[in-house]
Write a structure and sequence with these properties.
Blueprint: H1 2-10, E1 14-15, H2 41-47, E2 54-58, H3 64-70, E3 75-80, H4 95-101, E4 108-112, H5 115-121, E5 126-131, H6 137-149, E6 151-157, H7 163-176, E7 180-183, E8 189-192
Parallel strand pairs: 1-7, 2-3, 2-5, 3-4, 5-6
Antiparallel strand pairs: 6-8, 7-8
Helix pairs in contact: 6-7
Bound molecules: S-adenosylmethionine.
Length: about 190
């Protein structure tokens, strides 16, 4: 309670208030901390007039958020090392499992890559980006800064459950001069636009 208050004072982000909530047509039923956020994605895209061509996601795991985005974009690229990290429950290679369960979603392309290698070679600009990798400050800042500079709108998961993510979102918005919001539900979603 006091910790949260302190964090909000230290990193003041405008609270995002959705006007409408909508359930996307395609969802996969798997346990994930992302559950609930699918209801506000369309609202965010409409509010900030985001194009619907391409989306990039860093941190796919079993594909819940990637499938949510596949409802709204022509193409979704999912980048992940697919071995888990210090903060995930699942450890070990899950590329084949994720690939198989997402094969019906033809507009999702998965890439087994570290974001560090990916951002060195990708020069594309995206309508939308999502960062949900290991929740450390350094990695979230580095991957997030690239994602914000290569998209119109970038969202970050776990701003409420990981103070390091909230701080990185606050600092990236300051660095880029973009607007920043925080949706404080379902572990928190930072929005930089
Ligand atoms: C919290 S999970 C993603 C959850 C997913 N967005 C969902 O909807 O359930 C974090 C993922 O980030 C990946 N990851 C961690 N560090 C990474 C890195 N340096 N580059 C790419 N992916 C990374 C892990 O392998 C893991 O699958």
């Amino acid at each position: 309670m006091f910790k949260k208050l302190f964090l909000n004072l230290r990193y003041p982000l405008t609270t995002y208030k959705p006007i409408k909530k909508s359930t996307p047509e395609n969802i996969i039923e798997i346990p994930t901390a992302w559950k609930g956020l699918e209801l506000v994605i369309e609202d965010i895209l409409d509010r900030f007039d985001i194009g619907r061509d391409n989306c990039i996601e860093f941190g796919v795991e079993f594909g819940y958020s990637a499938v949510v985005f596949s409802n709204y974009f022509k193409k979704v690229k999912g980048i992940d090392i697919f071995i888990g990290d210090d903060h995930t429950t699942h450890k070990g290679d899950h590329y084949d499992k994720t690939k198989k369960s997402l094969e019906q979603f033809e507009n999702i392309d998965l890439y087994k890559s570290d974001y560090k290698d990916w951002i060195k070679k990708d020069k594309e600009h995206y309508d939308f980006a999502h960062v949900d990798i290991v929740h450390n400050y350094k990695e979230t800042y580095e991957c997030g800064l690239w994602a914000v500079q290569h998209s119109k709108c970038c969202v970050f998961h776990d701003t409420e459950s990981f103070p390091a993510v909230k701080k990185a979102v606050f600092d990236i918005a300051k660095h880029t001069g973009k607007k920043v919001y925080n949706y404080p539900h379902h572990h928190g979603l930072g929005i930089i636009v």
